[in-house]
Design brief:
By secondary structure, the chain is α+β, with helices and mostly antiparallel strands. The protein contains 10 helices and 10 strands. 29% of the residues are buried.
Length: 334
């Protein structure tokens, strides 16, 4: 294997990703695993860029144009050895902005942060520079490939940044330990089985704790790609609990950590049924083991006592009329 440093002709920093493990052959690697590593790494760089810009990485909205462009990764070389790929960041702008070259700053923070986690120097209330809960979740997700015969992933930056960091099971456990603890004062944790996910319109689900306590969980849009792995798992959630005597317990989720593995029979169901595919009521009932309700009072007890159904219906009708009037005034809109 050629171990010389990789630098591009124009001085741009390259990121070399080397994958090793019992199921990684000579210059061979599962295309799906490699794509997942690169996808999650690029997602981490963009999220770190947002944090460096003074934003939260796990909030809805468009990322600044500088982050989208400068944190883009391009594959420029694939070399013999234990599956080694070289990637380059997009070229920096001709005129640097206040934050410098965001791509390189994000890459440096990514490698430095991973190193601090590996050394046990990161704490929930004192995360590495550029890191927040959203970045932690993305870094944890990189570790999903470790379950496929990959022992570790080596990240090496060469050029204007020169640093090498190893991602292995120990590092992933470090990220998961940080995710399993509140990172903001006032947050709490809840553990239980996550069921009844709804991915249409609102991202919600229900968490059932061991003592039978039920929570209606509200997820962020940015957590959508984590939910298929968490569905029907035992999970630990951190976030804010909202409890009112006459309403269902609500949990606003900040981070998700899967604690167990799915049983084989559940995996078989997920492989044959796409997660977001709409199912009939009969299919849902059979899949979730739900039986018919024989007492209507059981259903009425779930409706908040102070809610007026007529008021909700009037609100929906009003909103539809307003949208219809808006579209009629602007024929080009949809």
């Amino acid at each position: 294997m050629n171990d010389q440093k990789l630098t591009s002709g124009d001085g741009l920093t390259r990121l070399e990703i080397k994958v090793e493990g019992p199921k990684v052959g000579q210059a061979r690697l599962s295309a799906g695993d490699f794509a997942e590593i690169v996808r999650r790494t690029q997602q981490a760089l963009k999220r770190i860029g947002q944090v460096l810009y003074g934003q939260q990485s796990n909030v809805q909205g468009r990322k600044p144009k500088d982050i989208e462009q400068q944190c883009e990764l391009f594959m420029v070389e694939w070399r013999p050895g234990s599956a080694i790929a070289a990637l380059e960041l997009a070229a920096p702008p001709a005129q640097q902005n206040l934050f410098g070259f965001v791509g390189e700053e994000s890459l440096k923070a990514f490698l430095d942060g991973m190193e601090k986690v590996a050394e046990g120097k990161a704490q929930p209330l004192s995360l590495p520079v550029g890191f927040d809960v959203g970045v932690l979740q993305t870094c944890d997700a990189i570790g999903s490939v470790l379950q496929h015969g990959i022992q570790h992933v080596r990240f090496s930056a060469n050029g204007r940044i020169s640093k090498t960091t190893l991602y292995d099971e120990g590092v992933r456990n470090g990220f998961r330990a940080l995710l399993g603890q509140p990172s903001v004062v006032g947050q709490i944790t809840k553990a239980g089985r996550l069921e009844e996910l709804n991915g249409h319109g609102a991202l919600t689900g229900r968490l059932y704790e061991a003592d039978g306590t039920r929570w209606l969980c509200r997820f962020k849009v940015e957590q959508r790609d984590l939910l298929p792995e968490a569905w029907l798992h035992t999970v630990k959630l951190t976030g804010k609990a909202i409890t009112e005597e006459t309403r269902e317990n609500v949990f606003e989720v900040e981070s998700i950590l899967v604690l167990d593995d799915l049983p084989a029979e559940t995996v078989a169901v997920q492989q044959t049924t796409p997660f977001w595919k709409p199912l009939s009521l009969d299919e849902l009932a059979q899949q979730q083991g739900v039986s018919p309700v024989n007492d209507l009072d059981e259903i009425s007890a779930l409706w908040p006592a102070d809610d007026d159904p007529d008021e909700l219906l009037n609100h929906i009708i009003t909103q539809r009329n307003e949208r219809r009037a808006l579209h009629q005034g602007h024929p080009g809109t949809e």
